[in-house]
Write a structure and sequence with these properties.
By secondary structure, the protein is mainly β. It has two helices and nine strands, in the order αβββββαββββ.
Length: 109
């Protein structure tokens, strides 16, 4: 990713809850209709849904690349493993607050 793009990107979550040499744990909270900053996932990670009912992920450059936003119903307790590389904005497209925990894998073996 060019340096000019990296300069305009935000963090992948609102705050870091824990970090060591192996993992970094983030929390993200979005009220209905709220969007995260545009961000890039530099590491593989696991998302654990804590609250929410619906979320939309809009890839960076979706219009130019032909990529469509991805919407999904979510439920507390659901988790998913995702590979690094995506640059995106998360949007709470649901009716209730969305909260997740993201566990970045910093040094996979």
């Amino acid at each position: 990713m060019p340096d000019s793009e990296a300069a305009v990107l935000g963090p992948i979550g609102d705050r870091v809850l824990f970090e060591d040499q192996h993992i970094r744990i983030w929390e993200m909270v979005l009220e209905p209709g709220e969007s995260s900053p545009r961000h890039h996932h530099e590491n593989d990670y696991i998302v654990v849904i804590v609250e929410g009912d619906h979320v939309t992920v809009e890839p960076l450059g979706a219009a130019e690349s032909g990529s469509e936003p991805k919407s999904a119903r979510v439920s507390p307790g659901h988790s998913v493993f995702l590979h690094k590389g995506d640059t995106e904005v998360a949007i709470n497209s649901g009716a209730v607050r969305y909260r997740d925990i993201q566990i970045e894998l910093l040094n996979p073996t």
